[in-house]
Inverse folding.
């Protein structure tokens, strides 16, 4: 889902008012300004730029290094640019145009694709949905199988958002709960299967 922030001068009142335009698609980061919240934002929900989480120390209490690498994938850069252009097209429709005085952000001065991309880089921000650091699957990058068992290690499962092969198109809390519910069923099923086999 792309949520693009359009701030508009309210007709008549003269005060600045903020509205949002939502589009089913995808992005990376939130367009932030002093009036925005995570919901008043541009966000890539089907982001493809791979981030990195690396252990920095043998001390388990040391925090890892996390590098999200936003907008490194071309698909994400295209999406960030096209989503802003889409919001502009939407804002210029007959239905919305009468209510707009001027574009607040990115602003009239930001026109070319590279200028729009620079705006996305400058004002983008996370909305806190990093996932997929040890994805479920069977390809060489997969860490767990489809029953969340870590490949090559017996008696170990991963049960949280890190097993998502791709980011869900929405919030991540409910899917985390669903993954846990499903995992508890699978753990019980496997335990029953083992006791029957034994
Ligand atoms: C600021 C913020 C706002 C958010 N807002 C929303 C929202 O509005 N709606 C929504 O759906 N999602 C939201 N999210 C995302 C959502 O909170 C997460 O996607 C979700 O909590 C992920 O669940 P998880 O179980 O995968 O990981 P976590 O919730 O991070 O759980 C991991 C747990 O493992 C523990 N842990 C870590 N290391 C160890 C260790 N070595 N030993 C033992 N325990 C350890 C941690 O203490 C933690 O309790 C938000 C996230 C943030 C940060």
């Amino acid at each position: 889902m792309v949520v693009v922030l359009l701030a508009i001068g309210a007709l008549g009142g003269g005060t600045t008012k903020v509205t949002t335009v939502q589009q089913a698609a995808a992005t990376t980061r939130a367009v932030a300004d002093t009036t925005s919240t995570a919901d008043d934002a541009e966000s890539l929900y089907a982001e493809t730029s791979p981030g990195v989480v690396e252990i920095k120390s043998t001390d388990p209490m040391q925090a890892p290094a996390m590098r999200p690498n936003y907008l490194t994938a071309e698909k994400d850069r295209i999406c960030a640019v096209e989503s802003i252009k889409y919001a502009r097209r939407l804002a210029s429709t007959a239905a919305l145009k009468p209510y707009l005085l001027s574009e607040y952000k990115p602003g009239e001065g930001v026109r070319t694709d590279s200028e729009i991309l620079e705006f996305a880089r400058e004002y983008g921000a996370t909305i806190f949905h990093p996932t997929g650091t040890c994805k479920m699957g069977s390809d060489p990058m997969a860490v767990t199988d489809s029953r969340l068992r870590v490949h090559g290690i017996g008696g170990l499962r991963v049960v949280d958002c890190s097993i998502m092969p791709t980011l869900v198109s929405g919030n991540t809390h409910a899917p985390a709960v669903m993954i846990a519910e499903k995992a508890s069923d699978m753990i019980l099923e496997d335990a029953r299967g083992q006791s029957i086999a034994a």
